[in-house]
Amino acid sequence: MSEAASETAFEAVGGRRGGNPRAWIARRAEGIVLPLAALFAGMVAFSIFLLVIGKSPPELFDLMWRGGFSSWFSIQNTLSRTAPLLLAGLCVALPARLGLAVIGGEGAIVLGGVAAAAIGGVLGGSGLPGPLGIGIMALAGMAVGALWIGSVGALRHYRAVNETISGLLLAYIAIAIMNHLVEGPLRDPASLNKPSTRPLEAAYRIGSIPGTDVQWGLAVGVVACILCWVLIEKSSWGFAARIAGGNMRAAQIQGLPVGPLIVGFCAIAGACAGLGGMLEVAAVHGAANASLAAGYGYTGILVAFLARQNPLAIIPVAILLGGIDASGGLIQRRMHLPDATVLVLQGMIFIAILFSDTFYGRFKAFNPELWTEKA
Amino acid sequence: MIQRPAINRRQFLKTSTAAAALGVLGGSAAAATATLGFIYVGPKDDYGYNQAHAEGAAALKGMAGITVVEEEKVAETVDVLKTMESMINIEGAGLLFPTSFGYFDPFVLQASTKYPKVQFRHCGGPWTDKNPKNAGSYFGYIGTCQYLNGIVAGHMTKSKKLGFVAAKPIPQVLLNINSFLLGARAVDPAVTCQVIFTGEWSLAVKEAEATNALLDQGADVVTCHVDSPKVVVQTAAGRGSYVCGYHTNQAPLAPEKYLTGAEWNWANVYKMYATKFVGGETLPNFTRGGLADAFVKMSPLGKAVSEPARKQFEAKMKEMMKGNYAVIKGPLKDNKGSEVVAGGTAYVETAIELESMNYLVEGVIGATS
Questions:
Q1: Alpha-carbon dihedral of residues B164, B166, B171, B176, nearest 10 degrees?
Q2: pTM of the complete model
Q3: How many CA atoms lie within 13 A of B310 on its CB side?
Q4: Inter-chain contact A333–B168, Cβ cutoff 8 Å?
Q5: CA nearest A302: which of A279, A284, A325?
Q6: What is the CA radius of gyration of chain A?
Q7: Does B126 contact A192 at a Cβ distance shorter than 8 Å?
Q8: I need a surface site. Which of A13, A91, A273, B326 has the fewest CB within 10 A?
Q9: CB atoms inside a 10 Å sphere around CB B295
Q10: Which of residues 70-109 of B touch A (CB under 8 A)?
C-alpha cells in the first residue's frame, strides 16, 4: 500500500477530524441499523410463532403499541417499568466491559434496599431533613451493593472464583439474608402476614417526577447511564478497563492495575444496583420486604446484553423492555394468551440480537475500511 | 390494525349529546357491561391459591352484563399498580379484585386514592375504616377446614405422624398448622405433626425436598400451606402417602391418595359482589365468612377415607355449619410448654386474637423462628 493510499484509508475510517463525513456516519449507523434489524427479525420470528398457535400478529403488535406507547398513560406505564431496569442493566454492563459475566445484580438490589430501609428506620424520629436522610439512605444502599458485587470481582481476581457462579450464588445468599432480617431483627411487629421493615416516614420517601406518576428512579437511572458511559468511553480508567476486557494478559503486561480495575468496576456496578434497591424502597414500597426480589436483577442481564454493554444504549433498550412489559398485561387480557407469551417474545428478540453480533464488520456499507480494498 | 380516526369537534358534540340523551333516559350505557378486573400473583392454573380465585372469576363469566378481565403473574411491585390503572384506563374496569396479600400496602391504597370512582376489593387485606372508602377486603376463615382435614388425617395415619409443608411462619399459616394438628388430636391425642417452613410462597424445589424429608421421618399423611400444593401432593402421593389438599381441589392429581381438602369458595363471594355492583348497591368494605357462610368448603371425601373417619368428619362439619365453632380453645399449651390459651377461653373463628397468632401448639414439631 502506498503512502497516499494509507492516508486515504485513514481518513476514510473517520480517524481524523474533518475526515470523510460519509465514513463517520456509516460507522455509527452500524450500531443502530444492526440492532433494529435484529429487533425486526425477532418480531418476524415471533409473528410466525403466533401464526402457528393461531393468533393474529397485527392484533398483538397493535396492542403492544397501545399498551406501551400510544398514550400519555401508556408512556408513563412504560417509563415506570423502565426505571428499575436502567440501574439493573448497568450492574451487568460495567463488569462485562472487563470481560466478566456478573449476573448476580439481584443480590445487590435486595440488600441495597434492606440497608436503605434499615438506615431510614434508624433516622425516623431523628428530625433529620428529608433530602439529607434520603442522601444517607442512597449512600447506604450503594455501599452495600458495592461491597456485594465488589466481592464478586475480588473473588474473581484474587482467588480465581468464577464470577458468574459466585455472583449468582451470592444473590441467593442475599435473598436469604433479606428474609432473615425482614422476618427477624428488622421486622415491624405490625406487619403480621407480610413481614416488612417499619414503614419509612413520609419525609424519607421519594415522590414522582412532577407532572408524571413515574418515580424519580427513572431520572437517576438515566443520569447514571450517562455517567457510566463517560466513565467507560471518555476516561482513562474506562480505556484501561476496555483494554483489560479485550485481553487481560496484555493489559497486565502493559502494567495496568487489573486487580483494582476489576474490583472497582464491579463495585461501581454493585453501587448502581444497590441504589436501584434503595429507590424501590424509598419510591415504591416505602419499606423493605420480600417483594424487593422481583427479578429486576435478572431482567438487567437481558437489558445489558441487548444494549451490547453500552451504558447509553441501555436507556432505549430499557424503555423497549419496559414497553413490552407494560403491554404484556393488555395482551394477556385481550388475546387470552398466557403471561409466558411476552417471555417468548423477549427470548426471540434476545437471540436475534445476540446473533446479529456476528454481522458487525461484515457489511461493506458500514465499514469504510472495506471501501478502499478495491483501490 | 385498528383504525382510530381523529374525532372532530362536530362529531364530538354529536356523540356527547347522544351520550347525554342516553343518560337522561336512565339507561346508562356503562351499567349494561360492568367490567370486573381480577389480578393474580401466580399462574391461574397452579392448582392452588391463584386457581381458586380464577375459578371464582370464571363463575361470573355467564352472568348478564358482566365482562371479566384477568391478568396472571403480576408481581407485588409497581407492576400491580400499573395493571390496576391499565384495567381502569384502557378496559374501563369499575371493580377490581387484586387477590394477593402483598398488593394492598402501598399499591391498592395508592390506586384507590387516585381513582375514587373505582371500587377495589382486596383478598385478605388489613382494610380499616381509616383507608379509602372505595377500597375494602374479603377473606375466609379456612382454619376450620384444616381442622376437618386433621380429623380425617388423624383417622388415616398409622405412624401417628403427620407432615405439614408451610411457606412462612405468619399468623394465617400458624393457625392452619395448629388447626390441622388439633383436628387430628381430637381423634387420637398421641398424633404429632412435623412442620417444615420453606420460606417462600412458591418454591417448587424446596417444597419437594420438604415433603420428602417429612416422609423420610415417618409421616404418612401430608398437607401444606403454600401457593401451589401441586408439588407437595404429587410428591407425597407418588411415595404412597395420603394427602389433604389446600386452596382448591387437588384430587385430580392424586385420585387414590387424596383424602379431602380445605378449599376457598370464591365463586360465592364474587357472585355476591358482582350482583351488588351491577345492581348499583353499595359494596361492603369488610367481608369475612367461614364454612357456614360458604366462603370456604371441603373437597369431597376421597375413596380411601375409612368409615369412622367419614362419620366423625360429617358430624363435626354439621356442628361447624351452625357457626361460631371454636377450634382454638383453652387450656392450650404451645410446643415449648407455656400456656397460650387459658382454660375456659375459646376463640371463635372471628376472634381478633387469632390474627396475631405467633405460636405452634403442643404436638407440632417445629419452630416459628
A1: -30
A2: 0.87
A3: 8
A4: no
A5: A325
A6: 23
A7: yes
A8: B326
A9: 21
A10: 70-79, 81-83, 85-87, 89-91, 101-102, 105-106
B187: cell is 381423634
User: Which pLDDT score, from 0 to 100, does residue B4 have?
Assistant: 42
Residue extents of the structural domains in chain A: 1-55+337-375, 84-327
CA separation for the pair B369, B356 (Å, rounded): 15
Which amino acid is residue A214, in one-letter code? Answer: V
Dihedral sign (CA B210, B215, B218, B223): positive
Q: Kindly report the nearest CA distance between residue B240 and chain A, in angstroms.
A: 33
Contacts of A237 (CB under 8 A, 6+ apart): A231, A261, A264
For residue A193, pLDDT over 70 is answered with yes
Under the banding of pLDDT at 50, 70 and 90, the label for residue A19 is: low
B168/A325 CB distance under 8 A: no
Residue given cell 394477556 in the structure block: A332
Give the 3-state secondary structure of residue A181. Answer: helix
Would you call A325 an interface residue with chain B, using a CB distance cutoff of 8 Å?
Answer: yes
Domains by residue range for chain B, with CATH: 32-140 (3.40.50.2300), 143-261+298-365 (3.40.50.2300)
Identify the pLDDT of residue A374: 52
Residue B334: per-residue pLDDT: 96
For A39, other C-beta atoms within 10 Å of its C-beta total: 17
- Which residues, at least 6 apart from A63, have a Cβ–Cβ distance to it below 8 Å? A327, A330, A331, A334, A335
Position B159, amino acid: S
* Residue B124 touches partner A, C-beta closer than 8 Å: yes
- Say whether residue B350 is in contact with chain A using an 8 A CB cutoff: no
Close Cβ partners of B318 (under 8 Å, ≥ 6 residues apart)? none
Is the pLDDT score of A375 beyond 50? no
Low-confidence ranges of chain B (pLDDT < 70): 1-32
